[in-house]
Design goal:
Blueprint lengths: L2 E13 L2 E12 H12 E2 L2 E2 H11 L8 H10 L4 H12 L7 H6 L22 H17 L5 H8 L5 H13 L2
């Protein structure tokens, strides 16, 4: 394992007319930096830039050009950006024109809660980015519990029995964009 040593010397202590140097050694592995870089910039040998480009081909309306944001935040949460985007497309219709829930309330996951959107049961977000982050955070909870496929997530996430098949169709379209 290759190691990188960073040395910081500070001339900071005066004691009995002698200057003492305090050397601080920070031992950081290059492997750690590399793995963190890869985790935040690649998913299964595809760069974030390549993934975002594919996602942007399928995202329209309110989510136009949000592919890089979705990709980067998904990767930071260790969630498949294709799955996230497929769920968002299934929930919002943003393949074409986003639903009014997205356009008026920035809610991309069909999430319920407060603050409410127009007095209803669905949650309102201040920005589209906040809505995207919330949706990704919800999906990351499934991931953290070992549920990483639409078939595993669907029964808890959606009432539609065809939800997993529809999400998988979006995943295929996204990957082949």
């Amino acid at each position: 394992m290759m190691k990188l040593f960073l040395i910081f010397s500070t001339f900071s202590i005066f004691n009995n007319n002698n200057y003492k140097y305090m050397d601080n050694y920070i031992n950081v592995t290059v492997d750690h930096f590399e793995s963190e870089y890869l985790r935040h910039n690649y998913y299964k040998d595809e760069s974030a830039k390549e993934i975002a480009k594919k996602l942007n081909k399928q995202l329209n309306s309110t989510l136009k050009d949000k592919g890089m944001f979705i990709t980067k935040y998904s990767l930071s949460k260790n969630v498949d950006p294709y799955l996230v985007t497929a769920v968002i497309l299934q929930e919002t219709g943003c393949k074409w024109t986003c639903s009014s829930l997205v356009r008026k309330c920035n809610n991309v996951g069909g999430n319920k809660g407060k603050p409410s959107c127009n007095g209803g049961s669905y949650r309102k977000f201040d920005t589209i980015e906040a809505g995207i982050k919330f949706a990704i955070n919800v999906l990351s909870k499934y991931y953290n519990n070992g549920k990483t496929t639409p078939e595993q997530i669907g029964p808890k996430y959606a009432s539609d029995p065809k939800w997993a098949a529809r999400v998988n169709n979006y995943i295929k379209k996204l990957k082949n964009s």
